[in-house]
Fold these 2 entries.
Entry 1:
Amino acid sequence: MSDEFRSSKAINLQSKWDELTEGLQIYEPATSVDTITGEWRTQTPVFLEKDCKQCLLCVPACPDSAIPVKNQKRLDFDYDHCKGCGICVKVCPFHAIEMEGVE
Amino acid sequence: MSRKDRLSGNEAVAIAMRQINPDVMPAFPITPSTEIPQYFSNFVANGQVDTEFIPVESEHSAMSAAIGAEAAGARTLTATSSCGMAFMWEELYVASSNRLPIAMALVNRALSGPININADHSDAMGARDTGWIQIFSENNQEAYDNFVMAYPIAEHEDVHLPIMICQDGFITSHAVENIVIEDDDDVKKFVGEYEPKHFLLNADEPLAVGPYSVTNYYMEARRAQAEAMAHVPGVVLEVAKKFESIFGRHYGLIESYRMEDADYAFVLMGSAAGTMKEYVDGLRKEGEKVGLVKVRMFRPFPAKEVAQALSHVKAVAVLDRAESFNNVGGPLSGEVLRALFLQKVRCEAADYVYGLGGRDLLMEHVRSVLEDLKKLCAGETLPAFYRYLGVRE
Amino acid sequence: MKESLEIRWHGRGGQGAKTAALLLADVAFETGKHVQGFPEYGPERMGAPITAYNRISDQPIRLHTNIYEPDYVVVVDETLLEAVDVTAGLKKEGGILVNTKRSAEEIRPLLHSYEGKVYTVDARRISMESLGKYFPNSPMLGAIVSICNIMEKERFFTEMRKLFQHKFAKKPEVVEGNMKALEMAYMEVSDV
């Protein structure tokens, strides 16, 4: 245990008390990328590219930043981090996203 | 050059703060600690320090601001008393668990009710399990010296814990006494610059402070915090040794007074220790083999040192300036008796509550305690686990 | 010169009894003594009875209690004689100083058969003559130092002048008046 730098990648459920950081501080940015929250998902949104107008309204609405954007166009979902909340389905004006198995 | 002066305890602590010149001081006034931020805000207004003084709207905010500032990388301190610190309660835990070396001047005062502005240790005892280091001062000189030593202890790389320097409200905070004030530069050099390794305002190292911890990690975090506390006694002694080498005044975890051949010992903390030294001298003149153990550091508790100091006595009386309402005795006696038991020191023991709400400890009280101890040694049993001193009954 | 001394001050909130006790601690410190000066706080209001204390000694002072058996008592407001037991615990070898235009003989019957010395000084008249306003603390300080023989007279006045010059740095015109109040009371205080 000390204030020496320790990456969060090196800390897991096998880490002993003296292998943690002081106050459980995290010394790096964007460590949520390493946490695969996609497995919490019970319903899955599906991207219907043919209906998409690339208006990008869905992107800022996603609470988990799970809609990647490249060259001003959205790509398919980042299913490692999508929790399946369905907000994107509600905000899409063109019905270009639907929840799998939901009428 | 050090200089002789006469100052109240609050003035002395405010001067120590000026000499330290911290980065941030959030504070909210409450009797009897109010003078400390009052004097300090004068120093700010006069340009004698370049501290960011934040006049917050409550003590909860004072400690919250202190936590934020310290996490950002700023050396931060505050001052409070009584209900003010009670209002900081949840934040005190946040400060210590996030390992933030904040310094606090606690001017001890009773907690309501009945509402009372005078000295006792109820406020500090309410915070005894918050993970803060607690050091008690006998007089104005000690309040000053202890504050000068606060940051070198709290910021030590093996510690990184917040620290409260306690003195008794009014009894020392508002009493003018002789004192030696050290040279500004000597104090600055002794305290040094604050150079945290990780801090929020470091653009080169994005940092998350205070993340949520699930059950799978919580106990490990607590265990690590306990380890930091285990390092404190050694660091306190190391800092005291350096302090003595520069400024000449000696400090330990406890102070033993006329204990060498004592049969009967008194244990207490704070300003009553000076009073008790006078009474011990008085009783010694009458042929009584009595001595005093003053506990300077209450958190962490110096169990070995206390037990060692008491290892040869026939009986010990612990005098608590706070109630625990447990029908057994006060918080200091709980610590002392545990220390004796675990260190296998066998002697008679009794506990007393004294001085609540500013009441004085008088020689007649101490005489009655000594009588109790002699009764215990003669095989008699006292009517209760503990009793009040100087209460009308 | 006495080695140690305990003094209890009785006044009313706003009259400067606490200030006088702190000034006495200041001047005794400047003459090389160990000192304590501290107030006892009750309800803090203008006019409420307040108590302040001094310990002055050649040795370091360790006691941290109020003073129960003072050598001297100073009563800054004579109406307190009826409201407060001002001679409680007062040593008969010591004395009591009262701010009044009456004589010590007239005051003694009000003091619950206290056997020690009774001193009086008319701090109101002295204050009005020297300062033009009623601030009883300087006259009472001059009078108690005169009585209790805790420091050399010349040293007392020299150090008090310095203290006043420091304390009244922003209104130096009141230094002379306060010095005059000290001196008048020092000379006039009387036990007859």
Entry 2:
Amino acid sequence: MALSPVFLKALKRSPWVFHVGTSGCNNCDIEIADCLTPRFDVERFGVKLVGSPRHADAMLVTGPISHDLKGLVQQVWLDMPAPRVGVLVGTCACTMGVYKDAYSVAGPADKVIREIDPAARFVYIPGCPPKPETIVMGIVKILEAL
Amino acid sequence: MAEAIELIFYYLVFPGLAFCTILGLVLSFIDRKVSAMVQWRVGPGPGQPFFDVVKLLGKETVVPEESWARGFLAAPYVAFGAAGLAATIVWLAVLRIGGSPPGDLIVVLYLLSIPAIAVIVGGAASGNPLGAVGASREMKLVMAYELPFVAALLAVVFQTEDGATLSLSGLVALQDQAGSAMGRVSGVLGFIAALLCCQAKLGLVPFDIAEAECEIGEGALIEYSGPALGFFKLTQAVQLATLPALLVVVFWGGMGPGPAGVAVFALKMLLIVTIFVLVKNTNPRARIDQALRFFWGPVTALAFAALALAVLGV
């Protein structure tokens, strides 16, 4: 999809994020909360946590996706208006980590979302949990790569 | 013909939609920056509100299947248009351009409640249960703050024994002669009551009950995306540029002559916006019943006390 340069510049400076916590251990969620604190303050880059997927440009996924939550995660992805990007925070969301081959999980977030939207694009921020510095670096990197 | 073009220019460019949108976005940057400073953060850059709006205008608008599409899509534009008209009337009085017609204070009061009504219509039309909850809360909030707001403004109207006027430029002219309404007890009480009502009108904490983002996911705005959401944000910006100006005009005199007058007016507006932001950052969100009790109790009492004192000439 062709995006006008003015829009792209604005998008880079104002990524709004909807946080989807799947069946994770809550550790990554705490690190994400850290990013909003005075020490890291991602609002400097225009990043804002929003309460509705309709307002979001990026979906932040933490944790492995269980069979129960698979449909919901796919629905949230479809709820977001285009253009949209997925940000997978933590080893579980990126590659499943210790949950690999477990009976209760449906797969890593990128696989689950690509089932309904093959063109979906993702950013991977590995770590268990990733440090806030890593998350901020990941955010800056995607904004540069857009 | 020339007159019509002049009016259209007033409405669309200066001091109407374009001017108030830009001013409102600058003020909302000040809001976010002061909030960040209160929370010991660095905060966003000065272009942030502009980037947000340009981005929203470029995005896709999703219309939910269950919604009443026509009302859902019309609501943000109606809100923006009405807020712009209110802004034009208030700012014409601020800048002393022309003599405003008699009774334009009443027109402004009605126009300022249209954005709230558009939020109610949009939220109810979205087909989302949380949107309906947000719309219902907004409705209760409107009922809560309109009565004390009108009473507080009337206090100023009744301050003058002879020649009570409901026109904004008339109020400005009277304050030029007799000193600003804030010079009297009734003016101060009315100003405090109106300030609290404006906090709720702007949907700022502690009265952001209708769009409580961590509770009902932005409430009435939950299903909005792209340009439709962008126009609601622009409406909020226009309101942020209008309500402090209205408060200054009614309670604190109009804009004085020359650059000094403009600077004093800007400082007054900044002071009011800073009060909004500090109240916003030091208070938790009220429940809807608490807000209703607060506005119909202490705030209405305050506003009517101001009205009674004004009639008695204090």
